[in-house]
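explain this:
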Amino acid sequence: MGFDTLVVNGIVVTATDSYAADVAITGGKIVAIGQGLPRENTKQVLDAKGRYVLPGGIDVHTHLDMPFGGTTSADDFETGTRAAAFGGTTTLIDFAIQYKGQSLRTAFDTWMQKASPKATTDYAFHCIITDLPDARIGEMNDLVRDGVPSFKLFMAYPGVFMLDDATIFKAMRAASKAGGMICMHAENGGAIDVIVKQALAEGKTAPKYHALTRPTTAEAEATSRAIALAEMAGSPVYIVHLSCNDALEKVREARDRGLPVYAETPQYLYLSIEDMDAPGFEGAKYVFTPPLREKWHQEKLWTGLKQDHLQVVSTDHCPFCFKEQKELGKDDFTKIPNGGPGIEHRMSLIYSGGVAKGRFSVNRFVELVSTTPARIFGLYPQKGTVAIGSDADLVIFDPKRQHTISVKTHHMRVDYSMFEGITVTGMPDIVLSRGRVIVDGDKFQGKAGAGNFLKRAAYSGV
């Protein structure tokens, strides 16, 4: 008896172990792990000598094909999942947006239509709730039952996405009862709105004022409030795109008290407000929310990852081209589409800054980029580990290979890189999605529509 594929001579790395073993795949699943597995009648043998065999990365925060501010994010589900695959990410969770007056089901169906014919890797959705009258709360139960057990709410963007505390509290209670999870954009949108209006009245319109009008205190206060509301509701809460030490301290305190509070951080580990001092309008490349912070916050976030005060690294990938899209805000920073491109570089940036620089182990790296995201969001053990019975989403990863990130070589459909010129150590060589090789070096071998929608399990604690 042979296998479909055998990955040989590699070091298998999970969140808990690292060991030399071969990995056998049949029917898209891992069917055997061991040394010297028989090669007879195996259709494909991949040699991972000198390299790690990792579970595919899981990015739980992306915005593909998303309308925003009169334009649409530059990557759709085909180009976005392809770029993700080149970076070793084989599963992503995007956001289906419910617009005011819509049912949650309409939001889900709309995003399924965007993703289903195009996604090259597996995908799932959170549902963004912008309108939640009492009559709609039952719809949350239906979505949880249908494999969408997480909902994103906003404490920012008044008049567009922002919900009041009573609605947030009701949503948290409903989600908790149904086995769901609330993902929270935590910034004090009301206070920020006052600061923004004052800045514009004073003629402060340059991109940097996007950051200067959104203080860290506004993020910390909202994070604290989100945690308090979740505690009252008896529900877990997941703080998205945490950017600063002030907010991190609130999460740390809550976790120290044993509360089911989780948080992620994306690009704030490498970028700072100094990047917004770029000449001319170039600072617009770094306009996303929460904004970039002073550089000293970076080391605090790395330490948070090491000590498990932060549990996940995501990207908040929401790319807008500098030309024509970011330029919509040339005379007013509030009109710059919010978001940056990062889906392709997450794993290499975190390996390079975390493992290669000695901040944490390769097992902790796997935990941050794959295993814990899978556990929190109802995908484990189908995804997030190398184990018999799990999907054969695997990355043959060269820990020594170096690469200088550049717009010239990335695969995202956007005309700049936020990480231009940064040299990383550690790169994926071969990437498999459910046993199929979809990336081999610089060649893409996947196809649009091959990705599966993943029904996720209800939240069960981590």
About this structure: The radius of gyration is 21 Å. The first strand starts at residue 5 and ends at 13. The chain has eleven helices and 19 strands. The chain has a mean pLDDT of 97.
